[in-house]
């Protein structure tokens, strides 16, 4: 068993954490949040999502936020389609997370197109990224392409079953198309150590050792540490988390929050696994963030 | 990876949970506690310890408790030496846990003899158990011999290091001598998933598949679920826990409580692993127990 000496935490508070929160931050506050996360030692932050303001109004300032953080590293933006990719590319983000879903029903709710269409869009994105061009033809350089599979460990809908082999199929297609990092998300928060381990091992075997797998957990049943342990044992060393356990997909009924960044960092440190992150810096940022959200609710 | 369908919970509240508690139960209350645990579906309860009343006065009624529970199954008693074994045998318990320590300093504090002497006593106990006789020659039948190693994952003393190979050596001697079940205890509560997994695998490889390994966790750093997950992945399916997270060795400075029975049962059920235990029955027993302990403190 090869345990890691260190792991990479990708904080997704500014994107997943805020997209469905009670209260809203101003663009300036979002930028401040991201900078505080980088200052606390988080190396990768999912800073925003280039999604339709019609569906996720809280992300309508994606350009403002991303442009302001152009000099930070690593900035990641979620994109659900080609249009989102173009918008992201224009702002100079370092990486984009292209998201599809292992649940056909969630795929339709969240992406508003079937999986095959999403994968087709990802192929066009990857081609354009390879040639360094945007749709408009302007050369704005390459971004790191991340592929992510929502609902990889369970469906939000009781009449749907997620089959690990299907998740592995999607993973393989994303990687063959050009994803250099592969996220598996427990969007519904129903993962157990068994399912997490089996799915991660199966996906890892399919996509090979060269493609880092990222685990994105929501925590409905407080099995987070068990899932993290199982993931470490499956060789996964990148975890997506959010401050205060905020977050949840707006298109999942009763969606549980993300796994809490502070908890995960604390667990890792107690296990003797380095994160490069300052726990005190995280705590201060969380306090400030929750205060800001509360103040926004009070104003509204 | 073979995940278990079910696990066995050995509740050690009446022994480890009470030995260092604030407040004391009467013998009648201890008996009621044990019966309530069996009623809730716990199949094995460590009902008492046959230790010197001088060192652990709260266990001075071991005979009363054990005799009253003679018809319950499975009753387990901890014994630190031959004298304790003889006392246990006379009461008709189903199993005894003979305890040694992987920490030489803790061995001396807790058992008041070096490891070699403890192991010598265990050999004599095993011989007598084989021939079905007590020291006095009366035929009181066999008991199930359990061997247990305290401090298997860390020492209470900063100038001592616990080496997994040493733990495996002791385990092998206990099993060769006659232990049919082998407990590894994180007496200090410093285990991490890495250390727990590596130690369990090493011990398992040494003692073979035929001897069930029992994990007894204390939880200083709230890594319990991670340690449990690592243990399940190492093939361990028996766990010792205590209600309310009570307990701790009187001879370990600032000893943390046991892993909480309710928590562990809840985790297992959420993972889809059966325990045969009724969560509501546990909760009622815990409420009653904590009330009884508080009342005892108030009286004192």
Note down, in words, how this protein is organized.
2 copies of one chain form a homodimer. The first copy, chain A, has a single domain (8-299), classed as TIM Barrel, CATH 3.20.20.70. Chain A has 11 helices and 8 strands. The first copy, chain A, has helices at 13-19, 27-39, 62-68, 82-91, 104-111, 115-130, 164-177, 193-207, 224-233, 261-270, 279-299, and strands spanning 8-11, 44-49, 75-79, 95-101, 144-150, 181-186, 213-217, 238-241. In chain A, strands 1-2-3-4-5-6-7-8 form an 8-stranded parallel beta barrel, surrounded by 9 helices. The mean pLDDT of chain A is 94. Chains A and B meet through helix 8 and helix 9 of A and helix 8 and helix 9 of B.
Radius of gyration of chain A: 18 Å
Q: Unreliable segments of chain A (pLDDT under 50, ≥5 consecutive)?
A: none
Quote the beta fraction of chain A.
Answer: 5-15%
The order of strands across the largest sheet of chain A is 1-2-3-4-5-6-7-8
Return the domain count of chain A: 1
Tell me which CATH architecture of chain A applies here: Alpha-Beta Barrel
Oligomer: homodimer
CATH superfamily annotation of chain A:
Aldolase class I
Give the N-to-C terminal Cα separation of chain A: 52 Å
């Amino acid at each position: 068993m090869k345990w890691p000496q260190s792991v990479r935490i990708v904080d997704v508070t500014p994107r997943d954490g805020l997209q469905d929160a009670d209260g809203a931050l101003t663009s300036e506050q979002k930028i401040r949040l991201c900078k505080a996360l980088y200052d606390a030692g988080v190396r990768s932050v999912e800073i925003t999502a280039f999604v339709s303001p019609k569906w996720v109004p809280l992300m309508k300032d994606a350009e403002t936020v991303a442009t302001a953080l152009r000099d930070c590293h690593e900035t990641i933006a979620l994109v659900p389609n080609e249009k989102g990719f173009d918008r992201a590319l224009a702002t100079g983000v370092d990486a984009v997370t292209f998201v599809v879903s292992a649940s056909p029903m969630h795929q339709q709710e969240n992406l508003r197109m079937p999986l095959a269409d999403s994968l087709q869009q990802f192929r066009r994105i990857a081609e354009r990224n390879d040639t360094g061009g945007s749709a408009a033809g302007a050369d704005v350089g390459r971004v790191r392409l991340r592929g992510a599979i929502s609902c990889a460990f369970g469906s939000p809908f009781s009449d749907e079953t997620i089959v690990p082999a299907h998740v592995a199929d999607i993973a393989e297609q994303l990687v063959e198309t050009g994803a250099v990092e592969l996220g598996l998300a427990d969007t519904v928060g129903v993962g157990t150590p068994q399912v997490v381990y089996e799915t991660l091992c199966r996906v890892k075997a399919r996509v090979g050792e060269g493609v880092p797998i990222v685990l994105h957990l929501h925590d409905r049943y407080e099995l987070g540490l068990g899932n993290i342990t199982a993931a470490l044992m499956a060789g996964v060393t990148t975890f997506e988390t959010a401050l205060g356990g905020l977050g949840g997909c707006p298109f999942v009924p009763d969606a549980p929050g993300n796994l809490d960044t502070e908890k995960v960092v604390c667990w890792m440190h107690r296990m003797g696994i380095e994160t490069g992150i300052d726990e005190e810096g995280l705590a201060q940022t969380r306090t400030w963030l929750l205060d800001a959200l509360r103040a926004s609710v009070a104003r509204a």
